[in-house]
Each structure stands twice: as C-alpha cells, then as structure tokens.
Design goal:
This protein has 12 helices and no strands. With 276 residues, it is an all-alpha fold. The protein is globular.
Length: 276
C-alpha cells in the first residue's frame, strides 16, 4: 500500500491522503487572480511534492520575455487584503503612513488607500485579535467552543455582542456580521479537496495568529464548524464566479472569528454544556 506522504501518481490519480493532478490544477486556476496567493500556493504545492502543471510554471519562476518589462520596470502589484490588514496593525502600533508605505514597498507592493468599508472592518478585527493573541496568548483548546451556535440570527447576536465589547461602532458591527456570514458561505461551497489545499496554503498565516500547532488545528476545527453552520447565498456565488473573493481575506476573517467565538463563549457561561 502506498505511503500517505508519496506524491500523486504519474497517471494523475491521487494516492491516499493526496490530491489528484486535476484538483491541483483547478486550485491554481482559481487562485491565479490573486498574485500573492497564487505564488504562495504554487510554492507550497511544489515543496510538498506535487507537480505544478506547465500552464502554472510561471507562478514558480515568473517569465521575463522580450515582450515583458524587466522586474525593475514592472509596477509593483497592489497590496493584497491580508497585507492591508497588517498595514493597519502597523499604523495602530504608532508607525506613520510614510513608514508603513516604505515597509510595504520593501515587500514589493504598492501601498494604496483609502480602504473599502469591508477592508476596514476586516482590518479592525485582525488588529484586535492579533493584539489579543500576543498579549493574552489565546489558547483555542478543546473547550474553545462547547456547543455550536444555532442559526444566522444568533450568529448576528454574537457578532453584535462582541463588537459592543471591544467598542466597534454600529456600522462596523453590521459590516462584520455580513462579512462573517458571506465568508462562511463562500468556503462552504468549496469541494472537500479544495478546502484541504486552501487550508494548507494558509497555514503560515493562521500560525501567525495562533502560536502552536495544536491551536492551529483547533482553529481549523472551529472554522469547519462555522462554514457548516451557514447556508446558500446567491451574492457569494456571484462573487466567486467573478474571482473577486480573496482566499486570504476569507481565511483571515474566519480565523479571527474563531477567536472571537472562543472569547464570547467563555464570557457567557450559560452557553456551555449545550448540545446541538
């Protein structure tokens, strides 16, 4: 019997515990619109022993043909959403906008503002939770969520409760509620194989929020609960169809929401011990 860690077979069929070549190609197709995620996913797949299809080799070593500008002449790409969240954290830490712009440029991106309303909501949550994880060493252990929260209405109540606790204004709280529901629904529509590879591609980002492998695994379990607890949404389907939904933004939002739910459940003892 083949070892679970062996690469996919030459025929393209997946060995146990591995993804097939068609799934690898499809996931790269789906992430091509986000250059940062596209390069990261391709690099992680290659490091894990997967064959990167010829059509996606440029993600590993970008071509610089005669009809393309040199690396020095190419304009820097716009800042992806998860790095916009990091810039917000730097601003909150006391750095000036000029200092943040210089740090962003050093990473090869262009700093642009203003951020959209959704990004401002996301950035506020990212900064809050990153600060909490660093200051209080949030541990998402087995008791992080003692029972699922039933229904969209109660999810909205939890979001409003948490937003009130940390002092978010009402428009931000409303935006957070909608973003949580939309992102959970978007992930729920992925195939099981795509969920697996998508989660693998974001391990480094999740690890920056939750400091240990055990905490990362528990956070993933909480995220799994979240996207199973929400239903269909035509707007999210349309967002996926036009490629405007960023994997990194979805993952950051869900990871942060997992931490929020953990804190909320601990501050509401009446929730503990309930069964679904």
């Amino acid at each position: 019997m083949p070892d679970d860690s062996s690469p996919a077979t030459p025929s393209g069929a997946a060995s146990p515990g591995r993804l097939g070549d068609a799934t690898v190609a499809r996931f790269l197709d789906n992430t091509r619109s986000n250059p940062a995620s596209y390069r990261e996913v391709a690099a992680l797949l290659a490091a894990d022993g997967y064959t990167i299809p010829d059509a996606h080799q440029a993600a590993l070593s970008p071509a610089t043909g005669d009809n393309q500008p040199s690396a020095a002449d190419r304009p820097a790409p716009p800042l992806p959403p998860h790095l916009k969240a990091m810039t917000n954290q730097l601003l909150l830490s006391g750095m000036s906008k000029d200092q943040v712009a210089a740090a962003v440029a050093a990473e090869g991106y262009t700093y642009a503002e203003p951020l959209s309303g959704d990004e401002l909501v996301h950035n506020a949550k990212f900064a809050i939770n990153t600060a909490e994880a660093s200051e209080y060493h949030i541990d998402l252990g087995a008791s992080a969520l003692t029972a699922p929260i039933e229904g969209v209405i109660e999810v909205q109540q939890v979001a409003a409760d948490f937003a009130s606790k940390v002092g978010l204004p009402a428009p931000m709280a409303n935006g957070l509620v909608q973003k949580v529901i939309e992102t959970g629904q978007a992930v729920s529509r992925m195939s099981d194989a795509d969920k697996t590879i998508w989660a693998q591609s974001q391990t480094a980002q999740l690890g920056r929020i939750f400091k240990t492998p055990e905490a990362v695994n528990q956070a993933r379990a909480n995220i799994d609960w979240l996207f199973k607890s929400v239903g269909d949404n035509a707007f999210v389907t349309a967002m996926q169809a036009n490629g405007s939904l960023s994997d990194a933004l979805v993952f950051s939002t869900l990871a942060n929401w997992s931490a929020n739910l953990k804190e909320w459940s601990e501050s509401h003892p009446s929730r503990k011990g309930k069964s679904s």
